[in-house]
Amino acid sequence: CSSKSGTTKKDDADVKTESTVASTDKKSDQSEKSEKFPEFKAKTVDGEDISSDIFKNSKLTVVNTWGSWCGPCVQEIPELQKLSENMKDRNVKVIGMAQDAGSDFQAVKEILDKNKVTYQNIIPSGTTEEFVMSLQAFPTTFFVDSEGKILYAIQGSKNLEGFTQIIEDLLAKM
Length: 174
Prior knowledge:
There is one protein chain. This protein is an alpha+beta fold. Helix content is 30%, strand content 22%. It is built from five helices and eight strands, in the order βαβββαβαβαββα. The protein has helices at residues 28-31, 71-87, 105-114, 127-133, 160-173, and strands spanning 18-19, 41-44, 49-51, 60-66, 92-98, 121-123, 140-145, 150-155. Helix 2 (71-87) links the parallel strand 4 (60-66) and strand 5 (92-98).
């Protein structure tokens, strides 16, 4: 899905691109910022406090940004739930960041409930909302280390095997 605002760049025509952060097609003023995931304090969909300190608790955190209006985003949620269950013993955490949780909370909650999602989903606000709204495509998934550095990012959806392969490759290099 393109961003909800409809802004796309010619270079982003292939939404399923995979890239390391250093070679992403983002605007140059964002590339330096994107090396580290923005620090944040927010609430989860379940009303819990959450902050960027969450990264310190895992070797690797998969941050999936999605929207309830985005078909591919919703389709990969069951895959992310399986990934979360499969990877928790490997010190890998999955969290979601629902782009429209602030404006369409009920739709987001229904999707999460329908898919029996147990991993945390953040309601973007402040810096996280700015970050999410700057993305060119949904879903976009970030792979973040324990220091909050983005090691890898993908635009477009993946299945369980695709996510697992990326995680295996990243863990092998850590």
